[in-house]
Structure formats: C-alpha cells, structure tokens
C-alpha cells in the first residue's frame, strides 16, 4: 500500500534553531522499508469502516476518521527521532465487514511479526475484532500461558451477542475466539455509562468476569487510586491490547463521535491512565475508534484523538 502524502501535510519551521521536527517530517512508508528498519517502531494503520456502525443503527461517518486523524497528527512536534511508519488503509467495501476485519488482522499480525507496534485508526469500534484477529494470529497458543489484557476505554461494553457482527459485538466475538482456543478472556472496560448499556449487557459482563469502572466513579480526585488499581491489573498479564473509543470522553470534549456522552470521563483522567499502560512496557497494539468527522466541531475531536495517539506513536515503548 502506498501512503497518501497529501494527508501527511503540516508546518515546517524553516530557519528555526534546535529540534523542530514534526510528525509528518519523520514519517516513512512502511511498505517501502526493510523489516530491519521497521523493528522497534510504530506503524500507523487505518481501518476505514462504517459498516459495523450501520449494522448497530448508529450515525455513520467514522469511515473518514483515519485520514482526518492523520491530518491532526501531522503537525504535532516529536521528541527525539522516533521510528514512525504508515502502512496505509484497510477499506471496508460493499458492506463486507468480515473480510475487512480479516484483512486488518493479517496486517496487524504482519506488523507484530516485524517487531513493530501497530497503532490502528478507525473507523467504528468493529475495528476491535479486526485488530484482535491480528493479535490472535501472531501470538497463537501462547495466549493460553501469556495472558493478554484487553483494555477498552469506552462508554459501552460492546458485548452484544448477535449473529451478525457490528460495532456493538467485538468483545463478545473476542471472548468466543479465546474460549475456542482455551485461552483466558481478561477484559476491562473503563468509563462504562450506566445509561448506555442495558441490564442484559451488565449481566453478560458479570458472567464473563469483565472488570468495569463506571464513568461516574472515574473522577479526577480518584486518579492516584485508579492508577494504582490499573498497575495491579497490568502486573497480572503478559501483554496489553489497548482500544480507545472516543465516546468515553464528555460530549463537549468529543462531539465528533457516533454516540456523544452525556457524562463521560475527563480527558486528563483518560490520558493519565493511558500513560500508565504505556509505561508498563506490555503494550503490544493499540487502536482508536468511533471518531466521526461528520459531527466534529472545529476539528476538536480530531485534535483530542491526536493528543491521545501521539505518545502511543512516538514513544510506544517508553
């Protein structure tokens, strides 16, 4: 896949002294590089899909999210000289969601096999099943003895047990995939809204031993306690898959999503907890979902998403 340089455009501080590089200036084409060059770096992948949201009866527009997030990332400054690559987009065409998820999975597995870290930009939260297919392909039976924490910042459990995949089913699908491989399902959903999930979903979460924190409890004054609790969770696993649904944030902070939150979790809380994950050294793959440019306001949601993504891309191992 050839990356779109028209998307990666940004400011160039010509004539300034010191380290003035911005992300678009250090980014390289993943497919044009040797495996030895990619190892240890971060590879940005796009998953252009609205199909899961459409099937889940949400408002569409997230298909345009990946390139808009790239545009928001392009001019952000970088520290040091990170190895950052773009591996292009996986596009869901003709409502063929399952095929697109499989293609994303293969791409994620390929990046992991190269010793790099995939950072996937969505797209609806159906991205999560595609991303995890890549994790499962890469780690295989090792997930039985090397447990992975699936850490989802989200107002919704996305545990719907439906015969047709959608943006509401990915973590149920992952639970079934892991059960079929006799591997443990460690799922934590942080930022759950009591008013955005039915009793049936709470019951399913309990049955699956899902660890969840309600948005109403994730308050800034409790951040030290939450960081400590998260560190304890991370200590029990070998790997982490981090997925961020932008609707975990308050609607006024992230209006450009499929389902804006009436309450949500403060940005500084989400950012700090992601920092705990990053510093654990166990983060293997990350994605961001549900950014919907159609409903954004002055590009605010894109900038918020870019700020969350920036340290994952430029300091993924640090």
TrEMBL record:
Pathway(s) of this molecule: Amino-acid degradation; L-histidine degradation into L-glutamate; L-glutamate from N-formimidoyl-L-glutamate (hydrolase route): step 1/1
Catalytic activity, as annotated: N-formimidoyl-L-glutamate + H2O = formamide + L-glutamate
Cofactor: how and how many bound: Binds 2 manganese ions per subunit.
UniProt enzyme class: hydrolase
Sequence positions that bind Mn(2+) 2: 154, 156, 245, 247
Keyword Manganese listed: yes
EC number: 3.5.3.8
Cofactor: Mn(2+)
Superkingdom classification of source: Bacteria
Keywords: Histidine metabolism, Hydrolase, Manganese, Metal-binding
GO molecular function: agmatinase activity; formimidoylglutamase activity; manganese ion binding
Biological processes, Gene Ontology terms: L-histidine catabolic process to glutamate and formamide; L-histidine catabolic process to glutamate and formate; putrescine biosynthetic process from arginine, via agmatine
Protein family membership: Belongs to the arginase family.
Function: Catalyzes the conversion of N-formimidoyl-L-glutamate to L-glutamate and formamide.
Protein name (record): Formimidoylglutamase
